[in-house]
Amino acid sequence: MIGIVNYGAGNIFSLTSALQRLQLAYGMVDTEADLDKYSHIIIPGVGHAGTAMKKLEQTGLVEPLKKLRKPVLGICVGMQLLTRHSEEGDADMMNIFPLETKLFDKEKHIKIPHMGWNNVNFKNNLLFEGVENQTQFYFVHSYFIEYNPIFDIATVDYGVQFSAAIQKDNFYAVQFHPEKSGAAGERLLKNFSTITP
Amino acid sequence: MLSKRIIPCLDVKDGRTVKGVNFVDLKDAGDPVALAAQYAQQGADELVFLDITATHERRDTTIDMVKAVARELNIPFTIGGGISSVANAEALLNAGADKISINSAAVRNPALIEELAKAFGVQFVVLAVDTKYTGGKNLVHLNGGRLATELETETWIKQAEELGAGEILLTSMDHDGTKQGFDCSLLDKICRSINIPVIASGGAGTTAHFTEVFTQTAVDAALAASVFHFGEIAIPDLKQELNKHGIPVRL
């Protein structure tokens, strides 16, 4: 069963709807004790990364989440929370991945936010099993996670090449929204639910 | 590469889709959920629902509709029409809308754009602008184009970007309904003056019009209603055609 970290950063109706369509059972994680109830944990998030981090800190879940050994999936701002630092609000994040979350550079002649469907170039990874390489996923964000070959499992190009997905041990994270990315996104959520620690 | 988006627009009233939608194999053309699912299956990249419900009392039906759509739809959607406060927008966000579009309320109270962007992020705030060429100028119009303002379209859009609009939905009232093509010269001018995504709207009649707007301007998406609803243009055919012209699309 999937536990969704419930820290008040944005709406999770789309995520829970996607899980329902996939007939994947889920519940909410409000406290440290709740983490034990679930086999898989999703950290969602939309909006401002600095603000989201503050909200997550208020729940007291930061340290317990960092200690987890079960599969964890960060989505969008939920991904950015797992990095070391975000330029959005100049905020320190959870530092599970020693990576920077940076603002897109408009001098590269790109529009910000990066909004829409973009091709994802992924490496062989359980998360993308059954998905064709270069499949498009739905992105909507103004900050991105720097490319680092050690953690990168999928890249995307938008002015720069950056990480669309990263992994470190049991921690997975995606910048796009699988719950809004059609059949491929649903497959990714399903894949995550079958990953064993 | 970031794909150009194709967006069907559906008018809804009291939680039902209105204006003759003519899908052959749809039992109930007024059911927004079935219609949305059909468009998603055809390869629409996103949907826009324009709520024309007149009375405030009936807005609950809109919330219920948004929830029903969000439960079934696996692509993003925007809802617009009658949103004039952060509370209105929050109810729609919590019901599962990915974005909201605001129009008249933002013209009357530009601070609303800033409030919404601060509360929910710029990615949530689409500014819809209805424009009409009047007296040698492109002027912002309200109430579906019936009411002219003195606001110049380009000036207003630039101001909205500064206030925190995350995307512009620009409808040319001169082209809307004519099926003679999008207003490429205005769209080009607007794209050059701002750095946020732009959705072209008004004038789509043929697939060539979509090719035209994507090759002649830097718009990110093109929106249409009747050509899709009446099956005059099938989305898979349109995307194949765009692809042939080297325009990046999601196939």
What does this structure look like?
The complex is a heterodimer of chains A (197) and B (251). By secondary structure, chain A is of the alpha/beta class. Helices cover 21% and strands 31% of the residues of chain A. Chain A has helices at residues 13-21, 49-58, 62-67, 77-80, 182-194, and strands at 2-5, 26-29, 40-43, 72-75, 85-86, 91-92, 100-103, 114-119, 121-122, 136-141, 143-145, 152-158, 160-168, 171-174. Chain A has an 8-stranded mixed sheet with strand order 2-1-3-4-14-13-12-9. Chain A has a 4-stranded mixed sheet with strand order 6-5-7-11, covered by helices on one side. Chain A is globular and about 45 Å long. The mean pLDDT of chain A is 95. With 251 residues, chain B is α/β, with parallel strands linked by helices. Chain B contains 10 helices and 11 strands. Chain B has helices at residues 32-42, 59-72, 86-94, 104-108, 111-120, 153-163, 184-193, 207-216, 226-229, 235-244, and strands at 5-13, 16-18, 47-51, 77-80, 99-102, 125-134, 137-142, 147-152, 167-172, 198-201, 221-224. Chain B has an 8-stranded parallel β-barrel, surrounded by 7 helices. In chain B, strand 10 (198-201), helix 8 and strand 11 (221-224) form a beta-alpha-beta unit. Chain B starts with a strand and ends in a 7-residue tail after the last helix. The model of chain B has no long low-confidence stretch (mean pLDDT 91). Chains A and B meet through helix 1, strand 8, strand 10 and helix 5 of A and helix 2 of B.
